[in-house]
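Our consortium's second objective concerns turning raw sequence data into structural hypotheses that experimental partners can test. To show how far this objective has progressed, the report includes one record in full. It was chosen at random from the queue rather than selected for favorable results. The single chain below, 108 residues long, was entered without modification.
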Amino acid sequence: MKQSEATGFAERKKASAEAKLKLLAKFKAAPKADDPEVQAKRAERAAIAAAREERKATNARLKREKEEQEKAEAAARRAEEADKIIAMEAERKAERDRRYAARKARRR
């Protein structure tokens, strides 16, 4: 609120008292806690909060399931890669053994 410099102390004090009375009247006019409208709003907010918590729990569960699935898929991929590496090493060893046997056969 803009105050002009011409206002005196008494006028400022009176304006302050009027503002306090208006604020008090506003709070007295506010609905009480046992008012049906207030209770309905409170129940509505509680229902919204419950739905929010349920969505949060569902999202957390879905996220956990997705992470577990991704971990299982990663483990399966690692197992497949390990099997491929083992097979490749066995193939190399067989080829090396074949060459060794051929070299030995030539010397005999």
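The partners drew two points from this record. The CA atoms of residues 92 and 107 lie 23 Å apart. The radius of gyration is 41 Å. Both points have been shared with the crystallography group to help prioritize constructs.
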